[in-house]
Amino acid sequence: MLRSATVLVLVGLCGGAMAQTPNDVVSFSPAQLPGRGLAQHDFMYAGESHSRRIFIVRQGMIVWSYDDPAGKGEISDAVMLSNGNILFAHQYGVTLITPEKKVLWNYEPPAGHEVHTAVPIGTEHVLYIQNGDPALLRVVNIVTGATEKEIKLGTKQPVSVHAQFRHARLTDKGTVLVAHMDLNKVVEYDADGNELWSFPAPGAWGVSQLANGNVLITDRMGVREVTRRGDSVWSWSPADAPGYKFSSLQQAWRLPNGNTVINNWVNEWSKNAPPFERTVQAIEVTPAKEVVWALREWTAPTNLGPATTIQFLDEGSKPEDVRFGEIR
How many alpha carbons lie under 13 Å from residue 211 in its C-beta half-sphere? Predict the structure, then answer.
C-alpha cells in the first residue's frame, strides 16, 4: 500500500519538449492556486535562467538570494549544506559559496565540456559529472585539490556534450544513481564504476533514491516510482493535472509527508516560451494525484524565475551526510 505522499514536478526543455497550443487558447494554470504560495514550505530554489539566481525562502519570504548576471551558463543543480554553504553546478563550472557569498571552491571544466550536477560528500569532497568525450564522474577533495575517484561513463553521442547528463544522486548504500539523458536510462553504479541496476527512462533528467529504497525518476513520460525489481508502483504525468500546462519535466522530490513536488521549467531562451505570469513553477501532488500546492511567483519582489531545482529545508537535514564507497 502506498503511503500518503506529495510530489513536486519540474518541467524543462532538456527533459523533452511538449507540444504547445496558442497562448490565447490554453489555460496555463487556474486563476486561484491551491496551497499557501511561498508560505507552503521553506525551500531553496534555483533555475536555469539568464542571471543564474538562487533563493532561500522561509516563512513565505525570500530571506537570501544570489545572482550572477555577468556569468556564463545556467544553474542546473544546487544544494545547501547544513552549515549554510551552497554548492551549485552552473554548466561551465561548479562553485561552493558561503552564506556571505564568499567563494570557497570553484572548478571550471575544459572548453567543450559541461557540468550540470554536483553532490557534496561531507565537507571536504564533491562528486560531479563532467559531460564530454569521455564523460567522467569525479570525486574531488576540495581541501587538497586531489581527484580521489574518476569513472568513465558511457554516452550515446560523445561529441554532443550538452545532452549527456543532468543529475546524479548518492544512495544510502554508498552507490550513485545517474540519469543518462542521452542513453534513455537511469543506472546505479558502485564506487568502482560497476553497473548494479538500470531502468529505461526516455530523456531521463532526475533520479533519486526514496526512503523506502525505491527510485524516483523524472523523464519524458512523467514521474515514476519504481522498485529495484523494475515494478512501477506510482506514476504521474501532465495529463493527471488538467488545468495546468507543462513544458517539459526535469525533477521531482518526495516530501516527508509522502507528497511529491514536480517542477515546471520554462525556457527563457525560447521565442515560443509560454507566458511566465500564467505558468506555475512547481506543483505538489498527493499519492492520489490531487494538486495541493502550486507555485507561481513571477513578479517583483518575489520573482523566482524558472524552476530547475528545489531543496526543502527540513530541520536537521544534512544532505552532505552521504558516502560514495569508502569516501565520506
Answer: 10
Burial class (CB in 10 A: 0-12, 13-18, 19+), 273: middle
Give residue-wise pLDDT tens across range 121-169. 999 999 999 999 999 999 999 999 999 999 999 999 898 999 999 999 9
* Phi/psi of residue 207, nearest 5 degrees: -155, 140
Q: Which three cell numbers stand for residue 120?
A: 557534496
DSSP state of 71: S
C-alpha–C-alpha distance, residues 50 and 270, integer Å: 12
Sign of the four-CA dihedral 287, 171, 57, 77: negative
Q: Is the pLDDT of residue 267 over 90?
A: no
Measured CA to CA, the distance from residue 97 to residue 75 in angstroms comes to: 14
pTM of the entire predicted model: 0.91
Q: Cell for 298? A: 513571477
Q: Would you state the torsion angle of the CA atoms of residues 229, 16, 262, 155, taken in this order, to the nearest 10 degrees?
A: 50
Amino acid identity, position 180? H
Contacts of 113 (CB under 8 A, 6+ apart): 130, 131, 132, 161
How is 200-266 classified by DSSP, letter by letter? Answer: E-TT--EEEE-TTS-EEEEETTEEEEE-TTS-EEEEE-GGGSTT---S----EEE-TTS-EEEE---
Cβ atoms of residues 250 and 11 within 8 Å: yes
Kindly tell me the sign of the dihedral angle through the C-alpha atoms of 234, 288, 30, 46. negative
| 19 confidence band (pLDDT: 50, 70, 90) | very low
**Three-state DSSP state, 276:** helix
Beta bridge pairs of residue 7: 254, 285
- At 185, the pLDDT band (50, 70, 90 cuts) reads very high
